[in-house]
Write a structure and sequence with these properties.
mainly alpha, Serine Threonine Protein Phosphatase 5, Tetratricopeptide repeat, 3 domains, two-stranded antiparallel sheet, 17 helices, disordered N terminus
Length: 375
Amino acid sequence: MPTCRFATRFVLVAAYAPWIAVGMTACEAETPAPRTNSAATVRGSGPKRANQTGTGTTTASLGDSALEPAAIDASKAEDWPRAESLYRELSRRQPRNAAAKHGLGVALLRQGKNNDAVVALEASVQLSDDANTRVDLAAAFGALGRYPSALPHLRKAVALAPREPAAWVGLVDALVKVEKPEAAADSLRESGTPCPDCASNDAWNHAGDDVARALVAKADKQRTSGDASGARKSVDGALALRPSLPEAQLVLGRVARAGGDTKVATGAFRKAVEQLPDAKAEAGANARLELATLLIGDGDGKEAVKLAESVVAVRADDGVALDTLGRACDVTRDKDCARKAYARLVKLPAGDGKSKEALEHARLRMKELKSRRRR
């Protein structure tokens, strides 16, 4: 068998997780691969026999010097069934060949045979530990939804290859999956020094976005459960990572409003409105309506009317928007505006954003407005 030098390269496995970098072993043979055995050539156009490669020879008929290059070529061509067959045969002939078991694990992973991939990749790590194989093993566990099992391998991968963005991205992603966004944020910060390429890596930056959103989601849960201090800490963590993230500004506004800090809340909601130009989208509508509600409380009905009208214009059946518009019109003493908003609200089908309180308020105000109109 010719002497080979194994180099490592990374390719994305989008089918499982965008951060996973699957290592492919590239063998540079110093002698040319031998020709295929002519006796194994398949005649006619019938189906391939079991263990037959795409070149007209069976896996078993290939010599040791031809097996590995053929397996690498199959992997490059993303012919994963063929790669599996070739790497499996190579592993059988050379049971202590870590690269063969690694290649087999990758081929299995790409076919969704995740349990078998775990077995092959664990065997490879036992023979020769390296960051690339650890990341692939974590990918296999991730494909099975076993993120806690993936974590120790990703931590080991980071220790083995601290300059490699894929290892850090995998660790951060897994920490988010196990609902540990603070630890994920710590890992992002920690990666800055040993990994100079991380800051310019798209996957690493996307991971930062995911961590910030996970912190925002946690802050919102903490807010609704009454944990104001925990919510503020989580949203501050999100803003430290992504200061311009509109979701973070939206939740900051809610947390500040719940704590009675209307100045911070108003500023946060204004930033969210600026960053969410689409009033039809849920987040954009919420930002405008929550800012309008604060302004109504401060007696600034004019701006509140504009904000609510911008939402009603594109979400005509939004009960919350109609309720907010009606209340804003009340503040500006525009009776006709209020009457129309409340009339539309009460006519909405059940469940279209109408709370019991909003519906009762609308009916009461319509009655009052009608009574005053008669006078």
